[in-house]
Amino acid sequence: MNAAAPLRCLLVDDEPLAHTVLHAYLDRLPGLATWAGSCYGAVEALTLLRTTPVDVLFLDVDMPELTGLELLRALPQPPQVVLCTAHATHALEAFDLGVVDYLLKPIRFERFVKTVTRLHTLLAERSPSPTPAAPASPPAAASPAPDSFFLKTDAGTERVRFSELLYVEGYGNFVKCHTAAGRTLLTAETMKQMESSLPATQFLRVHKSYLVNMTCVERLSGNSLHVGGREVPVGSTFRTDVLRRLQLR
């Protein structure tokens, strides 16, 4: 229910006079309450409550067939309930059943207004507060692509820039990393590990024992690539990929 909307009220009472009085009261509170229905028995109310939204149930206690308290116990999810009765003896049991208020007949208008006002306050407190929209997060800045990696050698762990690495050569249980500066770095990595460490957009396996920086290829001659003034063999099973990468087919 919108806390500012009039309360949708249902009166269940077997006495016509009670309907006349409460109708007159509600008609004097057009902005605070409105009628959802009138029932003269509990069974009729059970039927109406299945199809009609109700915020507040003004409920008589002493009724034939089912009493107001028996009706209240039968409702799995009752609306807010205000008991209307000529007897104060039901008060303790009523509040055990969670009723909001207890009006003794004859009901005075001032007392009725107090009940309606209290119901508005209660429902407003129970209405979920609108969740403030979370401030939009600025788009995350894209991380720059790495331009180097660290290589473990006998001399320690050394940063090697991709642009400086000409090719990698398998060497038994080791690999050799040949740089443009003419250095050869020996490391206990496997060719597969090296292949996963280097950017695939730049390095290509051209032989089971060679991984080449394709941006450094100077020439293809027969089954060899010339890289940094050195010659690297191209395996027959890798030749198609080499030609495609060099855009030669």
Automatic annotation (TrEMBL):
The chain residues annotated with the modification 4-aspartylphosphate are D60
Region span, Disordered = 124-144
Residue ranges of domain Response regulatory in the record:
8-120
Q: Which residues form the HTH LytTR-type domain?
A: 149-248
Composition bias of kind Pro residues appears in 129-138
Q: Which SUPFAM superfamilies match?
A: CheY-like (SSF52172)
| UniProt cross-references to Pfam families, sorted A to Z | LytTR, Response_reg
Kindly list the GO molecular function terms attached to this UniProt entry. Answer: DNA binding
Instruction: State the UniProt keywords alphabetically.
Output: DNA-binding, Phosphoprotein
InterPro entries from the UniProt entry:
CheY-like_superfamily, LytTR_DNA-bd_dom, Sig_transdc_resp-reg_receiver, WalR-like
PANTHER family with a match to the protein in the record: REGULATOR OF RPOS (PTHR48111), TRANSCRIPTIONAL REGULATORY PROTEIN YPDB (PTHR48111:SF17)
Protein's UniProt name: LytTR family DNA-binding domain-containing protein
